[in-house]
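Notes from hallway chat w/ T.B., transcribed later so I don't forget. T.B. wanted the structure written out for a chain they're using in a teaching module, and asked if we could keep both sequence and structure tokens in one place. Agreed to drop them here.
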Amino acid sequence: MSSVSVGPALRRAACAGAVVALSVTGLGTGVAVADDEPQSDQLWVQAPYEQALTVAPAGGTAQYRSLALGLYHDNAGFQVTEGRLTVDVSGLSGVAEVSWPDNCTPDGTGTKAVCDTGDVPTRYTPQVRLKLRAASGAAVGTQGTIEYAATATGGPDGTLTAPDSSAETTVTVASGPDLGIPTPQDLTAVRPGTRLTVPTAITNTGNETAHGFTLKMWSTYGLAITTRYPQCTYPDPDANTPSSSVTYVTCAFDTEIPAGATVQLPAPLRLKATRHALYDRFDYEVEPTDGTTDLDTSDNGRSWHVTTDNTADFAVHGTKVTAAAGDTVTAGFRFTNRGPAWVADVASGDPVPAIDYYLPPGTTATSIPTTCHTAHSAGDDPTVPHYTCTLPTWTKPHLKVDFPFQLRIDDAVPNATGHVTVRPYDETATTFPFDPNTKNNSTKVIVNPSA
């Protein structure tokens, strides 16, 4: 590895690395692209907006801190390779020293390097890890900027280029505690009832003592927080909050964490995968107390994804009505989740299922539910009205949702039959992997059924 002193430029900074409370949502992107629609792709640089470095002690040198960088692209339909990330640290002169990793080749000045990231994924993973430390003599508050550019092979035109100035990192020399917790390994194939221990070692990599810390926890519906600390505030178990999908807990500990020290919670933090668990997530974050600012919040919070071997039986139920021409009737359907699991995608933001409703012949919808819209799928008969409906962003066991379409009878067709099907919202999937009974995923709405 090579090391070079580099230095100052002032740029605006933005806060990065904050943990956000969970928004529990659906099972995929929900985006389907027609075969004849032009494909697109875009390359992106992933870099923190801010990076704090501890000030060098008088007569000594500061500790190196790691800066994780990487490339990713949007469209999984393209293979993207030969990622090249250009890192320009000329703006850090007098502010910080940089140690380049082996997959970076610096130029003659040592202030710019091209880093080989290899194959480029669609989901960011660290591919380049610089090491930075504050320059000797750089005072607290001194700032500089790292700028990036990137190219890769692939995409619709054969080459992808990251947008100019799409990423930069403001580096600040600072002093204070810096708390961090380890990244947990996501779990799969967990059995309902399994007890899990959360990795919660808390390390202070700053240069000052943290005089106590807070702990915040968010747990999705299928995970129960079983450990009880007297320093924490837990939700009222008698509170009637059926619409909530997240349990929120706040804690305050007076444990001091000296610079360089690692501490544990008073007892192991344990969760339980309940009988309703399927796709779940546990988020947690630590911060210094008393209003002290943490030097680098990027490692203060973690998300732990837990996938449980469980099932959820989605079903739709139709209706039968009798009406004369000119009448308007309610002729909709009902969705149910027979459980035992709840279903949510705790990452994306989309609904879990979508429901397609093809109206009975001879009818026109005069009023539709607010979560439904007109739709068109490949192979649709243009003479048959098609609506797609979505559900809440999470689907709990025993959930029942009615979709009361108002239909005008234009032509009293005997045994006029409409069709209803529940399917994944993500149109690139064809089945629900957790649903053990697909026979009840379709039903009929019949107007003027035959005797």
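Follow-up for T.B.: The two ends are 84 Å apart (CA to CA). Might be a good example for the class.
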